Structure formats: C-alpha cells, structure tokens
Amino acid sequence: MGIVTQRLDGAPVTAALDEGTRAALRTRSPTDPLPTLASVHRGVDSPFQFYRRRQLKAAEALGIRFQDEPLPPGAGPRELVERVRRLDADPSVHAVLVEHPLPDPFDFGAAIALLRPEKDVDGVSPANLGRLLAGRPMHVPAVALAAIDIARHYGLPFEGEPVAVIGRSETVGLPLAILLAARPPGPNATVTIAHSRTHDLRQTIANTRTIFSCAGKPGLLTREVVPEGAAVVDVGISSVPDPSRPGGSRSVGDANPESLEGWASALTPVPGGVGPVTVAELMRGTVRAWERLRTEGGGSR
Amino acid sequence: MGIVTQRLDGAPVTAALDEGTRAALRTRSPTDPLPTLASVHRGVDSPFQFYRRRQLKAAEALGIRFQDEPLPPGAGPRELVERVRRLDADPSVHAVLVEHPLPDPFDFGAAIALLRPEKDVDGVSPANLGRLLAGRPMHVPAVALAAIDIARHYGLPFEGEPVAVIGRSETVGLPLAILLAARPPGPNATVTIAHSRTHDLRQTIANTRTIFSCAGKPGLLTREVVPEGAAVVDVGISSVPDPSRPGGSRSVGDANPESLEGWASALTPVPGGVGPVTVAELMRGTVRAWERLRTEGGGSR
User: Fold this and answer.
1) pLDDT per residue over B280-292, tens digit each?
2) CATH fourth-level superfamily of B141-276
3) Please, what is the Cα angle at A71 between A65 and A72, to 5 degrees?
4) Mean pLDDT in residue range A200-228
C-alpha cells in the first residue's frame, strides 16, 4: 500500500485570488486612474524575463496597467535609485517591483528603502518587513503569501502544526517563517528554520508534517530527506540547462518529484505551483495599493 | 555520575560590555553633551520600577545621564504620543525607552513608530525591526542581544547548532530567532520557534542543544521537557508573590532550577543572568546612539 502523492496545482488558487481582484476592480469608477504596476529591471541582462512576461499577461487579463521600466544598458546604482525615486513620486503609479537579487555594484536594499511602503507591493522594503515583524503588516512578500495560500487551499496540515521552512533569505524564508508562526487568526505553527548550513536536514525536519522549501537548490528534497507522508510546498525555483527547450533551460524546484512520488503526501509542482499563485498575489497587492493610495491620497513619506 | 549544571552568571558578561561602553565614553570631549537615556513610563502604576532603578544605577555608574519621564497620573495615549514626539525632537536626548507592554487604551506600537530609529535604543520600532529582518540592523532588542552575548561568553553550543527559541513576541522571541539564524559572522543556528500553542514542547525541542526561553511562564522548563545535557538561557522574567520579600514578590524565570539541577548542562539564573546583561546592552546602545547622532547630526526622519 503505497502513498498516492497529491499534485497541488496552483491554478485553482490563482483563480480564487483573481476573482477577489476582479471584484475589487469593479469598484473602480470611470474617472479613477487604472491600477498601475511598474517593474524596474536591468532589461536584457535580467534573468527574470520569464516572470515579467507572466506578470504582464496576468495584469492584462485583469485590467491592471503593467508599466515596463527597464534601466538603460550600462546603468548603475545611481540610475536605479533615480528610477525608484521617480516612480515613488509619480501619482499615476500605485505599485513598484524592483528586480532582485541584483549583481554588484547595484544595491537593492538602498533602492527599495526609498519606496514608500504603500507602493512596495512585494513587501520587501525595511518599512514593510518591520511592519510584518511588529505584527502590523501592510504589504507582505508575495511568494510567502502564495506558499501559505496554496497550503491553505489544499488543507495541508500546518495551522497549529510543526512545520519547516528551508531557507533564511530576508525576502522569502524569514518572512514566511514569521507569517507561519503568527498567533491565531494566523497559522499558529511551530516553525523550524533550516538552511544551507544545517548539519542534518533529515533529522531537523523529521517531525514536521509540512515542509516549505525556499532553498533554490534543485534536487534538495528526496525521500532520503523528507519524512514519509509529509507535504511539500516547493517555493524554490531554479533554472537548469535543457537543450530540448526553447531558450535552452527549464524551471525546477527544490524537490525531486520522481523521488517523492509515492512517498510525500502532497507536492506543489514546478512550474505550475507556487509561481503562478505568486503572480496572482502581486496583482491583488497592486489593487490593494491602488485602493489605499486612492483613499489616503499619496501615502506616507 | 550526574551532570554538574553550570550556573551562568551575568556579572562577567556585564563587566565586559561595560568596559567597552566606558572606552567609548572616554572619546567624549568636554564640550560634547552627556549621553542621555530617557525612560517613558506610567509612573507609579508601572510594574517595571525595578528595571528602571537598575537602569538608573547602571547609567550613573558609567557616566550616562538617565532622564526619568513619567507620564502624569491619568495620562492616556495622546500624552504618550506627545511625550515621544517631544523626546524625539529634543537634541539633548540620544536614546529613548518606552515602557511596554502597556494596557489599553495605550498604543505602544503607534507611539514607538514616531521615534527616529537612531534614538530607539531597544530596537523595537518597526523601522529597527525592519532593518533587522532586512539584514541591515541598527539598534536590536537589548534582551535578544543579551541572550546571545551570555551564550557566547560561556561557549554554549549554538553557533551552527540546532537551537530552540520558546516565545514568539515581536520584541523578544522573533528578533532573537532572526539573530540566531543569521549567516556567519552571525550565529548560523538552525532555529525552532516554539510557543504557548506548541502541542508537544518536549518532542519539539528534543534535538536542540541550547534552549532560549522567552515565554514568561514560571516553571515551564523542567527535566520532563528539557533534553538531558542541554543548556538553558532563561530570558523569561516573571514576578511571583513572596510575602517573605520586601515588596511582597520576587523575580523568577521560565526554568525550574531545582528540577534542572544535575540535568541541564548549564542554566542562567534569574535574577542575575540575562537581566543585568540586558541593562548593560541598553547602556552600550545609548552610547552608540550618542556617537551616531553626534556624527550624523540628528539622524533620519
């Protein structure tokens, strides 16, 4: 009697989120500005073109304006800072994404700190991270929200349960751990934060029932590491070479799906799991930013 | 052949911190203002008079000015906000503490958010919590620093090791968990966050070698819960009735020292462990705030 591993498709979660986003957009009067999401990035040098195409497509489908903001070739930290300042000051822009991580000498942290929290739709500025930690969140990192919403949609055991977060990045692993540990009505989970330097990952997560993996390490999670019957939410997305694909690469998660098949109770696929839900969270966040700025008239500075 | 439980006295850690604070103060020229720490509280209604007396004594011994700022009897949230605003604007004040938790209708979170991060010496404002989470800390909660410094002083196994933090408060447990999980030169620990709703605390912390307890629950940690040979840093401080003491009460930690004697490898006492080290961290933080404001001329707003 083997375990049947449930495949946790992101599509129904995305559909539910988009329904809420559309409902909020129906409150828009003809004189209101269109909700606008600006995306700042390095242009052709950026390895994240794929995500932006997905964001553009989702925005168009919902009636959100997607404003592409590539930096000119050869631009440096000063151009990035100037671009963020301009978008922060522009009343026709409600939400701003800044590509990250960025290579040296770019300073993502310095640039994102210039954005008022109302427009920091991905919740990665110190102001929004501080609100999250202080228990008064405004925008929260979209990928952390997506991981929780997909787990909740499929009824995974994580509320009040022991869970693991693998990865301790400032913008994914740590915010997710804080959200998971939040008191009711938060998930109220007992959270173990593991990472690349954890000595014995298998032992560390042996008693957890749901594992949120944000390591960005293909093949990390196999049946040698994951406890039998645990559920895996695969938040890690990496690009691996694949000459058979257009572009020469494909996206993979931290989990080895072949190894976990018949072993894990459930697994989110990559692609098609947390990724599309994250895009839907960003769209919902953009509409919330638009609502908030419409109400408050510009936000805090 | 029992275990001999080492008593981890805070005094030598405090002495080492104070030595650094004194060295920094020797850079003061006669025309420089005295470093000044202001303490805002509810006056006679506050249950924390004991801590303030200790802060006053430590400040006087080091040459730091301690400015007592009791609110008038019957004061409410508006008086608290006005007091914080005034101290934030006062160039002769370098560091400000605000009593917390505060009963309704006081709003600690709203008041502390008005303080510029340079003066928030206990690192509990959203701005400082955000810097901590974003990996760019300025001031960090003093009690979390104290717990780490005492563990480091006595060479407890926590750097690169599995550790537990019991408690998930915004100002103690969560900041401590984030500090412990920080990449090298941070402690690089694998961190489990447990709390009051954790189903099976014994099982949850069974594989951890050092336990940081911030629950504020006297008697929580006994040999029935703590793994044999683990070290306990007792961060929880509660007041329990004791008619034999002046004032009718005494301070106790989360640990039951009698139960852990001969079982835990090490234990910080309460009182005399993390408490005095926390006061020394606040004094060091006050001098750092003074240095920073002297250099930057007023700080950020």
Assistant:
1) 999 999 999 999 9
2) NAD(P)-binding Rossmann-like Domain (3.40.50.720)
3) 125
4) 97
